[in-house]
Design goal:
alpha+beta; 3 domains; globular
Length: 440
């Protein structure tokens, strides 16, 4: 991957090391952690065996994605035509369906990018394309006003059955492209149909990174949510592996007298095998001390299931503490995660973490909508006169009841105007609030 990004020359200092960390995060998220194999034990144990894994890294990222993006956001804009156009582009590209998996991967890899571009023959919303890319496909290079506005994208294209590596550098108002295959550079126009150098007018991107603290603090990269807790993830897998081995090593064992064991000879190899026939229901007479020699004993070990579950839950609480979640948010025997409204009512650490990430997610959606509006204006399809805002529905549903009651009391007491009350309840502009009051 570093070779692909290096098509335009040397990467900035420290980026190669960070790309190595992204590769490690991707392996952990995909269920292939460095601790995934352990040595076999026993008399004939040689080599390694795959450890049974709980896959807690993926569970953590999907849980955070669900808390951040439980339902699709409401788009609000005074320009209804622009709002409808953005929704049409989202619908044509499966935006709402792809966002949960996008956020899950972004939490794992420390960031993600939504790239928007319009095709040359675009005449409607279907001519606009949205790509959902992870941090392993993008290197941020520059930022302005706190937003990443330049970087390198890496991907693949196919032509005539051959797979080529396409690298794009977005800096300033220019896009530079290079196509390579097995280290050899090819003509960009011949392979992709695109120009080697073009303007950024017809494209744009929005960058998202989780609200996880970056220990370096001076880079544009984000950090995986489980970067500081890989030891805990390994401990969880160790306990879960022990739990699964408990059922293998603790299988039912019956001690029977040697006189009840039969032998059979393989006619081909002459090998003698001894076995106990559990289906034998025929009475047989044996010459022995019956009380002593014919006693069948159950020697099954007691399974330590509760001890393992308690250990798993304790480690999951540690994981929650390390990732900014409240104890019990992740539980091995839980009925499921709490809803966003339930979490908010508890005023927990989970709610604080969710608010931080939801603000970043809303900003990402708003930036994406602004890019679509800009590209739509270039083609003459719309003329956006008002910014598009993103508001998450499930939080608004929960908050609106309390907000409405409070505003009604203030309006009745003469301490707040009806216009201000509608603005608070519907989270809209003053102009939209006045129109709503006229309709009322």
């Amino acid at each position: 991957m570093t070779d692909m990004f290096g098509a335009f020359g040397a990467l900035p200092p420290g980026y190669g090391e960070h790309l190595g960390r992204i590769a490690r995060w991707r392996e952990i998220y995909s269920g292939r952690p460095p601790w995934g194999y352990v040595k076999k034990s026993g008399l004939y144990g040689k080599g390694e065996r795959r450890m049974a894994q709980l896959g807690c890294a993926r569970v953590l990222c999907e849980s955070l994605s669900g808390l951040t993006f439980g339902t699709q956001a409401d788009l609000r804009c005074a320009d209804e035509k622009a709002r409808e156009f953005v929704l049409e582009v989202f619908q044509a590209n499966g935006f709402w369906e792809n966002m949960p998996s996008f956020f899950s991967r972004a939490y794992a890899l420390g960031g993600g990018v939504i790239r928007v571009y319009r095709e040359s023959a675009a005449r409607d919303a279907k001519g606009f394309v949205i790509d959902y890319m992870g941090a392993d496909q993008f290197v941020p290079l520059s930022a302005s006003h706190g937003r990443v506005d330049g970087g390198i994208f890496a991907g693949t294209v196919r032509k005539d059955g051959e797979c080529y590596e396409l690298c794009e550098r977005h800096l300033g108002d220019v896009i530079e492209r290079k196509v390579t295959r097995q280290g050899k550079e090819y003509d960009v126009k011949a392979v992709t149909g695109l120009e080697a150098v073009s303007s950024r007018e017809g494209a744009g991107f929005a960058y998202f990174k989780p609200a996880a603290a970056d220990p370096d603090g001076d880079t544009l990269f984000g950090m995986s949510v489980f970067e500081g807790c890989t030891d805990t993830l390994q401990a969880i897998d160790t306990v879960f592996d022990s739990l699964t081995r408990e059922f293998i090593l603790g299988r039912k064992r019956i001690i029977v007298p040697s006189s009840c064991i039969r032998t059979v000879v393989d006619p081909d190899t002459g090998k003698v095998s001894r076995y106990f026939d559990t289906d034998d229901e025929v009475y047989q007479a044996l010459k022995c001390d019956e009380d002593r020699d014919l006693k069948i004993t159950d020697n099954t070990a007691v399974l330590r299931v509760d001890e393992h579950i308690n250990a798993l839950n304790a480690l999951l609480d540690v994981l929650c503490f390390q990732t900014g979640l409240s104890a019990g948010t992740l539980s091995f025997n839980s009925s499921g995660l709490k809803t966003a409204a339930e979490i908010k009512s508890m005023e927990t650490r989970t709610e604080i973490t969710m608010q931080q990430n939801r603000a970043l997610a809303a900003e990402l959606i708003e930036q994406t909508a602004q890019i679509i509006c800009r590209l739509g204006e270039q083609t003459g399809l719309i003329r956006c006169t008002s910014p598009v805002r993103a508001v998450f529905s499930d939080r608004q549903t929960y908050d609106r009841g309390e907000t409405a009651d409070e505003n009604i009391r203030l309006v009745d007491a003469g301490l707040r105007s009806p216009v201000r009350a509608v603005m608070e309840i519907d989270d809209c502009t003053e102009e939209e609030a006045r129109k709503e009051l006229e309709r009322i």
